[in-house]
Amino acid sequence: MPDGRAEQLTPKQVGILQEFARHSGGVVVRNELVHAVWGADANTNSKSLDQYVYLLRKMFRESGVDLSDFVTPAARVGWHIAADATCAMEGVVKT
After folding, report:
1. Cβ-count burial of 6 within 10 angstroms (0-12 exposed, 13-18 middle, 19+ buried)?
2. Residue 57 has pLDDT above 60, yes or no
C-alpha cells in the first residue's frame, strides 16, 4: 500500500482485481466475472459479488485510491473499467 501497510487479499479479491485489469478500457460483465473468479459451477449470488467489490473499494479508498474513478457500474451488466485502471491498482496491489 502507498502508506506502507501490507494488505492481505483473499484469492477471490485477487481474482476480481485481475479481471478488472484484464478488461481495462472495457466492460466486465457480471456473469463472466463470477465464472472467471468462482468457476463455471459457481452458485454465487449478486449480493456476494457486490459485497466483494464494496470491500475492495473500501480497501483501496483507505489506501488513498478511489476505485470509483476507475471502476463504475454498468447498470444490470457489470462494471465499466477505465483504460488507466490497471495503473491505479498496481499502486496498491502487487500480484
Report:
1. exposed
2. yes
Given a contact cutoff of 8 angstroms between Cβ atoms, the answer to whether 15 and 39 are in contact is: no
The DSSP code sequence of 10-49 is: PHHHHHHHHHHHHTTTSEEEHHHHHHHHH-TT----HHHH
> Positive or negative CA dihedral for 94, 79, 45, 40?
negative
Say if residue 95's pLDDT is above 70.
no
Question: How far is Cα 70 from Cα 67, in angstroms, rounded to an integer?
Answer: 5
DSSP notation for 41-89:
T----HHHHHHHHHHHHHHHHHTT--GGGTEEEETTTEEEE-TTHHHHH
Confidence (pTM): 0.81
Count CB atoms within 10 A of the CB of residue 31.
Answer: 12
